[in-house]
Amino acid sequence: MSSRRDFLKGALAATGAMVGAGATPVHARDTYSRPPEAMGLLYDATLCVGCKACMAACKEANNNPPEFNTVDKLWDTPLDTSGYTFNIIKMYRNGTMETKDAEVNGYAFMKTSCMHCADPSCVSACPVSAMIKNPVNGIVEYNPDKCIGCRYCVVACPFGIPKYQLDDPLGRIGKCELCRHRHKDGYYSACAEVCPTGATLFGRTEDLLAEAKRRLALKPGTVTKFPRGRLRPATERMLQGQADGKGEKHRHGWRDEPDQIYEGTVGKYVQHVYGEKEYGGTQVLKLSGVTFEKVGMPNLPPYSSAATSETIQHSLYGGMLMPIAVLGALTWVAKRNVKPDDDSGEQS
Amino acid sequence: MQQASFIHETNRAADAVERRLQISRREFLQFCSGVAATLGLPAGAEAAIAQAVEAAKRPSVIWLHFQECTGCSESLLRAEHPTLEKLILDIISLDYHETLMVAAGHQAEKARKDAMAANKGKYVLVVEGAIPTKDKGIYCKVGGHTAVDLVKECAADAAAVIAIGSCASWGGMPATDPNPTGASSVGEVLGKPVVTIPGCPPSPYNFLATVVHFLTFGKLPATDKLGRPLFAYSRLIHENCERRAHFDAGRFAMEFGDEGHRKGYCLYKLGCKGPETYANCPTLGFGDVGEVSWPVGCGHPCFGCSEKGVGFAKPIHAMAKMLNVAPPLQYARIVEEQGKGATFASAAALAAIAGAAAGGAAMLTRNLGMSHKAEELEKTQDKAGKNKAEV
After folding, report:
1. What is the mean pLDDT of chain A?
2. Residue B50 falls within a domain, yes or no?
């Protein structure tokens, strides 16, 4: 009864149903761009001295325990981001490691923490909206109360940032959220706050991008001014000194602190701002003296894989027509293949 | 017996030194241990030092002053360890020192000439202050002779030349831009490397230990390529700083007098040059009053007085260049290999488990099939039974 011919007929019917469903407009989704008030960090590897103050501050701000990977267990020595380490300074090593920021016989530092993508894969992959992107400041936020622990975000992230607390039966995802819990009191990201050289700088991504491009345009070896802590927009600098009082929250939302701009030497940069276009843009930007791929920053296309995957998924599942059509076809095939029950025939 | 005679000998020499220096034996040995510790010598070295100092062969020292403030001499005088000034003046025979000697004028000049003639090839020359070289060195003259001539004359027959203070070591403050007098270091003028004890002023114990090393071992201590004794100048101030923990934790004083400054936080952001200055200030301190008696200890950033190109050159607020980093072992690599590949045993164990599972599943399926067959059989038997009953 159920010949190959019949099966092909059924398949044809299903295809027809799908074409019918295609009549509902399904557009390829574009990669989202950063919100205009996006906040982020600028990490300048040529300024980093590897003091790891940012790692210590991150642990303190997020109330995370140290992780030991040395025999003596004296210092917090994580090997990568984990459920308890949201920020880590890694070291590129080559040969004799004599010169800083040299690819051959040199060493370089690289901060590894959430890049706060304009179009984050973790948010796209999360089935329960535990991972969301703040529409105003663009921070990729995590809500442990909504999280079901599926760890799709861990797999989805192209930078390998979100990690799960696997040792805890009630674990959660651990990842940098730019210290958003401190923002309401006027404090910004702890890593930028403590950075002694301004290698990690906090600010609006737009301003940070301008600052990064300014640095790239300078001649290596010349002296320039480097801001530390929080990059203040020009408009805010004019308001300097109009704060309510020292250490008080300013009307722009951040606590007033002393101007920390200092003079330093311009490093030898790779002429590229990592994160300007990568993956459709990230809110954390990076400058380096060593090729980005060598310091662990993957070579990514200028569009987000979230856009690609969502386009495919939303085409397939748009209006649930495709699944219904496939189900219908399968049901039809199954029905055709069911033999009448012998028992009922015998008993009647 | 031999040991007893040695002890007797030592005691006798010690008695002599006690009389000579007017200090108790206990104080004397304390001094010797202190110097041994400063030099980083192993335990037991203080005995050798004691013997050398007791041996009363006081080397003649000629101390020249040029473009300086006499701060180095003052620092030396204020070394407060048990009657150190006595030891300084009595361990060595200070035959010429313009500030300390009683003689003046021609008498002083004669003392220098006499000492040089009497100890030819054996005396130690100490130079304090930079030497002006511009315009034939007319900017510094002593007794009608230019500093250049004096230092060359005295160095010719010296057993060792020690440059004390930053001025003599690398030019110091007088050599600061635009350097109108062409101030130069001793090494530059003599054209040969000398032992340098830079600092403004240097710790007196760094100088003292260098002299005692010369006395004890007959040679000057090992130095780096800038002539600085390694026992004192091999480490950055940053490495031994008492405020280092604050640096590592990112706790910085942002302004003089702010909360962080009052709490004793790291002074790096105020321009501390500790990360690019080699000296033992944090371990030794100044004035023998404990750990706070050095700039960083009392709340002022190090300004790199001992380091050429830092002290008197970089502004105090300017940021220091980090010369070294903590041991690289403590840093995670860009890609860390975590965990190990499967060992043969673990792979075998896993294969065994997988095999057992597969076998179990096969058996289960078979049993399921069997039970289905049995069920079917039962049904047919039931039916047959029913049919029989009906019949």
Report:
1. 86
2. no
User: B195 and B267: one domain?
Assistant: no
- Residue from the list B251, B319, B332 with its beta carbon closest to the beta carbon of A91: B332
Query: What pTM did the predictor assign?
Result: 0.74
* Residue B42, C-beta contacts closer than 8 angstroms, at least 6 positions apart: none
Nearest neighbour of A91 by CB, restricted to B318, B333, B338: B333
Six-digit token pair at B238?
């940053």
Higher pLDDT residue, A17 or A214? A214
**Number of residues assigned to chain A:** 348
Query: Please, what is the average pLDDT of chain B?
Result: 83
User: Distance, in angstroms, between B261 CA and closest chain A CA?
Assistant: 13
In whole angstroms, give the CA distance from residue B91 to residue B124. Answer: 13
Whether pLDDT at A348 is above 50: no
In a domain, B349, yes or no: no
Same domain, B221 and B259: no
**CATH code for the domain in which residue B226 is found:** 3.40.50.700
Provide the number of structural domains found in chain B.
2
Q: Could you tell me where the DSSP H helices lie in B281-343?
A: 281-284
Structural domain boundaries enclosing A277? 39-303
Bigger pLDDT: B327 vs B317: B317
Distance CA(A208)–CA(A283), nearest Å, equals 9
- Residue A161 included in any domain: yes
Nearest CA distance, B330 vs chain A (angstrom): 7
Q: pLDDT tens, A247-281?
A: 455 667 888 888 788 888 999 999 999 999 999 99
Q: What is the sign, positive or negative, of the torsion defined by CA atoms of B370, B372, B374, B376?
A: negative
pLDDT digits (tens, 9 = 90+) for A183-210: 999 999 999 999 999 999 999 999 999 9
> Nearest 5°: phi and psi at A265?
-95, 140
User: Could you tell me if B317 and B226 lie in one domain?
Assistant: no
Tell me which DSSP letter residue B269 carries.
Answer: G
CA torsion sign for A77, A83, A85, A87 is positive
Residue B27 has pLDDT above 90, yes or no: no
Report the chain B residue with the minimal C-alpha distance to residue A75: B330
Q: Are A323 and A331 in contact (CB under 8 A)?
A: no
Task: Tell me which of B24-38, B153-167, B363-377 is least confident.
Answer: B363-377
Nearest to A50 among B258, B317, B331 (CB): B331
DSSP bridge partners of A90: A110, B332
Sort out which chain A residues have CB atoms less than 8 A from B253's CB and list them: none
Number of domains in chain A: 2
**One domain, residues B153 and B180:** yes
Report the residue of A73, A79, A195 to disrupt the B interface, i.e. the one with the largest count of B CBs within 10 Å: A79
A347 lies in some domain: no
Q: Which domain holds residue B192?
A: 58-232
